[in-house]
Specification:
mainly alpha, two-stranded parallel ribbon, 2 strands, elongated, binds (2R)-2-hydroxy-3-(phosphonooxy)propyl hexadecanoate
Length: 145
C-alpha cells in the first residue's frame, strides 16, 4: 500500500514529461494544448460571468461584461490587435456588420470592436456549449439553425 504515493508521483512526473516533450517538439500538439486552454479558459470565465449576467436576465448589456472578461486573452497568447478604420465604427444609422469568420479565435478580434448593443448571431449548437452557451444566451446572442 505504501508504494502507491510513490507510484502516483512517478506516473504524474511521467505524464508531465510526456506533455512537455510534446509541447517543445510537436507544433501540432502545442497548437492543440493552446486551443484546449483557450476553450477551457473561456468556459471558466463564463462560469464567473453567468451569475453576474443572470442578475439582469437575458439582456444585450451583458455583452459588456463578456467583453471585459475576454479582452485580456490576447495578452496570454501574445497577440497584438491592430484596428484600422475605427473612425467609421459604429455608424450613426442602423447597421448590420458582416464579418469573416474562420474559428473560435475570431472571438478575440470581435471583442475588440463589437459596438455596444450590437448583437452577434451564432449557430444554434453554441447554445449547448455549457457555460459559454449560457453566457451567450444571457448576452442576447441570436441563435440560428
Ligand atoms: C466570458 C465568457 C464568454 C463566453 C463567450 C461569449 C461569446 C459572445 C459572442 C458570441 C459570438 C459567436 C459567433 C459564432 C459564430 C458562429 O456561429 O459560427 C458558425 C460557424 O463557425 C460555422 O460553423 P460550422 O457550420 O460548424 O462550420
Amino acid at each position: 500500500m505504501e508504494l502507491w504515493p510513490g507510484a502516483c508521483t512517478a506516473l504524474l512526473l511521467l505524464v508531465l514529461l510526456l506533455l512537455s516533450t510534446l509541447w517543445f517538439y510537436s507544433p501540432c500538439a502545442k497548437y492543440f494544448f493552446k486551443m484546449a486552454f483557450y476553450n477551457g479558459w473561456i468556459l471558466f470565465l463564463a462560469i464567473l460571468a453567468n451569475p453576474v449576467c443572470a442578475v439582469r436576465g437575458r439582456n444585450v448589456e451583458n455583452m459588456k461584461i463578456l467583453r471585459l472578461l475576454l479582452l485580456h486573452i490576447k495578452y496570454l497568447y501574445g497577440i497584438r490587435v491592430e484596428v484600422r478604420g475605427a473612425q467609421h465604427f459604429p455608424p450613426t444609422q442602423p447597421y448590420v456588420v458582416v464579418s469573416n469568420h474562420q474559428s473560435s479565435l475570431d472571438l478575440l478580434g470581435m471583442m475588440e470592436v463589437l459596438p455596444d448593443r450590437c448583437v452577434p448571431i451564432a449557430k444554434r449548437e453554441l447554445l449547448w456549449a455549457v457555460s459559454a452557451g449560457l453566457a451567450c444566451w444571457l448576452a442576447g446572442v441570436i441563435f440560428i439553425d
